[in-house]
Amino acid sequence: MKILALVLFAAGAAFSQANLPVLGDGYQDTPLIPGTNWHVHDNRRPYPPVVTPGAFVSVPAPADAVVLFDGTNMDKWCKADGKPSGWQIVDGYMEAVPKQGSIRTKDNFGSVQLHVEWASPTPPKGKGQGRGNSGVIIMGRYEIQVLDSYESTTYADGQAAAVYGQYPPLVNVCRKPGEWQSYDIIFLAPEFNDDGSLKKPAYVTVIHNGVVVHNHVEILGPTGHKCIGKYSRHGKAPLSLQDHGNPTRYKNIWIRSLD
Ligand code: MG
What we know:
By secondary structure, the chain is mostly beta strands. The chain has one domain (about 20-255): Exo-inulinase, domain 1 (Jelly Rolls, Sandwich). Helices cover about 5% and strands about 30% of the residues. It has one helix and 17 strands. It has one helix spanning about 1-20, and strands at about 65-70, 75-80, 90, 95, 105, 110-120, 135-140, 140-145, 180-190, 190, 200, 205-210, 210-220, 225, 225-230, 240, 250-255. Strand 14 (about 225) and strand 15 form a beta hairpin. The longest helix has 17 residues, at about 1-20. The structure holds magnesium ion. Magnesium ion binds near residues 133, 135 and 146.
């Protein structure tokens, strides 16, 4: 009975989406996102409405924050393998150097409040996922997308501020390439039972340029391209910034433990 219901649900889901127009890049041959009728990176999923943000405000680190980047050095960062970061510091910001690889913090973190400021490359190059792609990858597993989504479209769950492959942002509040933008992220780490099974999923709230774009959403598993990963037990882990081949910039990064 359960299986029949599932089959009927799946057939209904496929039918209900079938007549929608394809909006741009993306896929329909990927898994369905649990709890939705959308496939991962569904090319029919509506783009979030555009909202023009208010003036940029750089929020200084409070006294109890761990400052991960203050514009002067990469002491808190390294490559995935622990070797020195290959990203460069220019005029008080760090910039991803294509092919140098993603970077991660040397320290591990659990549940956190995180502040990150970033800017897309200017002049912009490429389109869709190739335009200013980077990412804030919490615990090295859960990516909040960084992308140039200013007057540039891609599949909704892969645009700037998406929980990649799972949730489009509620609105598109991107600034122009080269302009500073902010993410304020409240992340609750997943919890696991002694046998390794999931006790409690991760949750995330994201504020992009002062606007709520995710309100305490349940992260469905590690983020990935064309897939949703399965939770597997892990403890505190480093924060990563993604090298996706584009010279995205970051500054004023700080983090507060919520454990
Ligand atoms: Mg990315």
